[in-house]
Every structure is written in structure tokens, then in C-alpha cells.
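Fill in residues.
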């Protein structure tokens, strides 16, 4: 069943992907993307578009294991910018279409824990698009234009992913007894703009809410998202850090995107 929340995710997935497609139309496809070392804009757009198609193919096939990324149907991006932009936009639409074809609650393989309802993939692909569009805007030295509520949801989604598949095996992102607080300064986000994170037995536990913590970060939801995903440095003036900064340094070292 499509709720108001899932409908919003669907609309945002299409809008964010279309906005990335517009950048493909207007920017040089050879533009380097510093946030993704070795990638150009063309590489990034291929990654996002093929990723959408990869998810759609697994949803359609009710996958119980991952599909080879190289075997994605129509996974090759056209070489001309206009064709590439249309291919990318079409890729996003395949995801909700695939969900509707099999049913939103049908379990499908995911890279994070057990199979999830097919609808889960729409939110995941949305935030893949939001973050990579931000990568392009940063590469072009432009402001990252992302709605605060989408940025806040991106933070919550990232913390949720980490709670089931944490870090890179280099140790707990936060030692037991240590906590981190994030406070988005955007108006009207309410409790959705605050997060308190801690570890329990090596697992990440978090909730929306305010609490005194070992380290606290304050900034817009967009700035917090970008620093958490290491798109901007921890000392970026858009983010204020209070408390034990070594806690956040350890967090970043243990939670690569």
C-alpha cells in the first residue's frame, strides 16, 4: 500500500534524479568528482542510473541474492549528454514501477541485513541520488540545494543502515558509554532534526531527540549530512562541533560511505 510517506519518497526519487539529469545536460561529462576519486560526471551518472536499474531488476525478479552489476539490463549509458540525461531519468522511474508490479511488501534482497519489503528500495535509491547530486554540485563549486527535510531523512536513513551493517570492520564507531548528538538548525524540522547516537555492544543505537552527549554537531541538515558522509571536512565552517572532537574523528574513520 502506498502511504503519504512512501508517495513522498517516490516523488522525491524522480525529482532528485531529474535534477541530476539536468546537470548532465549542462555540465562537461568529463568534470572530475572529488568526492568519488577517479570518477567523472559521466562515471557518476552511469553509476546512479545503472544502480536504479539494478534495484529495479532485483525487485522484478524478487531477488534472494545480489544481481551482478555488470548484468543489469540496459545498463550502458548513452554517450551523448541528452540521451544520457533521458536514460538516467527513465532509470529512476523503473524502480517504483517494479515495486508496483510485484507489490510493495514482497521481500527482496538488500545489501544491508535480511531481505526487506520491495518499497524499501525506493528510499534507498532516493538517497543514492541526493548524495551523488550533491557530489556533482560540490565538484562544480555550487551550493548543494537539497530540501532540509530530505537531508534530515538522509541522515536518518544512513544511521539506520549503519545500525544493521556498521562501519568497515575497524572497530565500533562509538565506544560503549560514548555518545554523539546531531542538531539541525533548520526551522520546522522538530524532533526529525535531532539525533542522539551511541553504541551498545558494538552495535549502533540511535533515536530522534535531544540529549547531552560526548560530542555534538550543529549545522543545517544539509551540512550535517555532507559532513557525516565525508563530503565536506569536519572543520568546515558550516558545522560547529562541541565536546570531544576525537569521538567524531573516530566515527568518521569507522563509517565510510
Amino acid at each position: 500500500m502506498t502511504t503519504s510517506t512512501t508517495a513522498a519518497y517516490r516523488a522525491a526519487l524522480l525529482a532528485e534524479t531529474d535534477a541530476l539529469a539536468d546537470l548532465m545536460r549542462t555540465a562537461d561529462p568529463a568534470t572530475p568528482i572529488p568526492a568519488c576519486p577517479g570518477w567523472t560526471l559521466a562515471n557518476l551518472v552511469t553509476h546512479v542510473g545503472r544502480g536504479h536499474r539494478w534495484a529495479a531488476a532485483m525487485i522484478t525478479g524478487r531477488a534472494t541474492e545480489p544481481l551482478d552489476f555488470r548484468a543489469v539490463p540496459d545498463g550502458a549509458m548513452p554517450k551523448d549528454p541528452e540521451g544520457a540525461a533521458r536514460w538516467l531519468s527513465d532509470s529512476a522511474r523503473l524502480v517504483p514501477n517494479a515495486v508496483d508490479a510485484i507489490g510493495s511488501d514482497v521481500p527482496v534482497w538488500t545489501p544491508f541485513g535480511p531481505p526487506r519489503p520491495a518499497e524499501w528500495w525506493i528510499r534507498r535509491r532516493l538517497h543514492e541520488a541526493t548524495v551523488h547530486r550533491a557530489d556533482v554540485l560540490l565538484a562544480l563549486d555550487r551550493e548543494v540545494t537539497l530540501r532540509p527535510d530530505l537531508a534530515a531523512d538522509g541522515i536518518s536513513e544512513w544511521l539506520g543502515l549503519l545500525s544493521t551493517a556498521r562501519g568497515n570492520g575497524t572497530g565500533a564507531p562509538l565506544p560503549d558509554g560514548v555518545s554523539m548528538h546531531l542538531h539541525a538548525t533548520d526551522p520546522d524540522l522538530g524532533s526529525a532534526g535531532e539525533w542522539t547516537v551511541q553504541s551498545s555492544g558494538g552495535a549502533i543505537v540511535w533515536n530522534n531527540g535531544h540529549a547531552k552527549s560526548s560530542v555534538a554537531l550543529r549545522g543545517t541538515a544539509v551540512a550535517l549530512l555532507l559532513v557525516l558522509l565525508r563530503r565536506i571536512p569536519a572543520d568546515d565552517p558550516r558545522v560547529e562541533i562541541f565536546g570531544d572532537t576525537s569521538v567524531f574523528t573516530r566515527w568518521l574513520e569507522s563509517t565510510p560511505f
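The mean pLDDT is 94.
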